[in-house]
Amino acid sequence: MSTIGRFLEFAIETPSILESLHFYKTLGFTELECSDVFTHKYAVVSDGELNIGLHDREVKSPAVTFVQQDLATHARSMADHGYDFDFLQLHEDAFNELGFTDRDGHAVMMVEARTFNMTEDAENDSACGSWFELSLPVRDTVRAAQFWAPVAPTVLEVREEPTMHMRFDATGVALGLSESIALKAPSLCFRNPDRHGLMGLMEQGGFDYEKYPGYEGAYVAIKAPEGTTLFVFEEDFLGESYEVDESGDTADFPG
Are 44 and 116 in contact (CB under 8 A)? Predict the structure, then answer.
């Protein structure tokens, strides 16, 4: 199994979808039209690159979610490769989906089809700027990478100091594995050099935010109503790190 499908969304259990929708739309995200495959309330916002799914149901959250056609066949292959599923729904008369966790307990979901429609209105950056990474806190980056490498075989960048950080191309999502103690939960990272403009919006909108939160030089961490943290940087914090060779070989990890 070389892939778990194409990145679909960052799925979040959301106590108040209306409150979270207001938050993201105020930041400039666009609400998308969703299909009716779920029985629970569901909404999606997007900036054209990052899709955030807001789910009114109890689920291990947040979950990095991928879409994979013929999910039943793929699930059997995953089981043969030793994957243990937290939940598995595979029926002819149901919307097929499954979930499992990585070695650090982060949730991963797979669904059999897209659950929303993109629109040209969602092709502009939000006020947060350009999304460049979904960061996962890990205890041991190399150990975590050994889990992710078979399903996200392309390593984009690696840095060993001051903290170990690896970035994978997980088929549509730049997935970062970080040992930083400032990263408490799966979080979203954006690049926006207009610090003055963004901070002015934070003040005017009454957003819950923290200046200089300590993660990789971010100048602000914005807290969404459902608990998601959005870190904003002037530039990509791995901009000066070295890149792996073009083969994307992940057989040997540094350290």
Answer: yes
User: What mean pLDDT comes out for the span 200-223?
Assistant: 95
User: Is residue 247 pLDDT above 90, yes or no?
Assistant: no
User: What CATH number labels 6-121?
Assistant: 3.10.180.10
What does CATH list as the number for 130-243?
Answer: 3.10.180.10
Instruction: Catalogue the long-range contacts made by 46-49 (C-beta closer than 8 Å, 24 or more residues apart).
Output: 46/118, 46/122, 47/122, 47/124, 47/125, 47/126, 47/131, 48/118, 48/122, 48/123, 48/124, 48/125, 49/130, 49/131
Q: In this structure, are residues 82 and 5 in contact, taking their beta carbons and an 8 Å threshold?
A: no
C-alpha angle 213-56-135 in degrees, rounded to nearest 5: 30
What are the residue ranges of helices labelled H in 81-194?
A: 141-148
Is the pTM value of this prediction over 0.85? yes
Q: Which residues pair with 233 in a beta bridge?
A: 191
- Calculate the average pLDDT of the chain: 89
